[in-house]
Amino acid sequence: FVEKNASTKLVLVGSNNSLYAYHVADHTGTIAVSAGTTVTSGAMTAISGSDDASIIAVGLSDSVEIYNKSLALLQTISVTNQTVTVSADGSYLFVGDATAANDDNTSGQVYVYKLVSGSFELDQTLINPADTAGMNFGISIDVTESNNELVISATGNNGTLDTTFDKKLTTFDGGITKIKGTELQSGAVYIYNRHYDRFVYAQELVDQFAVDNSGTNYGHMVLINDTEVMVSMPAISNTNITSTNGVTLISLIGR
């Protein structure tokens, strides 16, 4: 994590067992870095914070710790997580648990917390929108500066794809019968819009290259601004995919 819009920036660096804090200043081209201090101990899942570092969230395996800019511990939330994201203004905290089991046999939940009187309170739980098991929802999360659009990714084995034959010329039972195929180490990216302070599912963002190729790990990481979404496809285990296919930009204009 790096604080924004400050002459001396707070920089947080996590390791397998500790979180370290540094203060970095640019003195007319000369970078000055303070000695590191240990903030907390434990294996980090993620670090995120508001632009002004007034709210900092540190994900541990079974909890999220909330700090202020002075690195005083404000709150501890008991929740299993793999990623955490704080909105730019610090009013929202999003916690992803991609391993959470849902009643419909899907996996993954994202917990939406709102800052109320100085503490984060659970406001909403978003469930994996996929209709079959295999995709782990909540792998990566980002939100626009306005907090109006939220992007969440899922990765895993996508078993919802329709298998086609002869370039879709061959059908069964007049097109009524569908044969499903599974795309290994795939992913999905979903957009939620804020409506009356609730995040509502809007659409899935589809990249044709990711649809046509297994092993892309599409959605391993996502970033969003007001006009587009950046989606990574690191193809961790597919050596046939070149690095030029590693990131895709999807425009939000007109969607």
Overview of the structural elements:
- The chain contains one helix and 19 strands.
- It is mainly beta.
- The longest helix has 5 residues, at 208-212.
- The protein is globular and about 50 Å long.
- It starts with 7 loop residues before the first strand and ends with a strand.
- The model is unreliable at 161-168 and 176-182 (pLDDT under 50).
Mind describing the biggest β-sheet? 4 strands, antiparallel
**Rounded Rg:** 20 Å
* Model regions low in confidence, pLDDT < 50 over at least 5 residues: 161-168, 176-182
Oligomer: single chain
Number of separate strands = 19
Give the terminus-to-terminus CA distance: 31 Å
Note the beta-strand portion. over 45%
Question: What would you call the structural class?
Answer: mainly beta
As a percent range, the share of helical residues equals under 10%
Write down the secondary-structure element order. Answer: EEEEEEEEEEEEEEEEHEEE
Which outline best applies? globular
| Overall pLDDT metric | 82
Number of continuous helical runs? 1
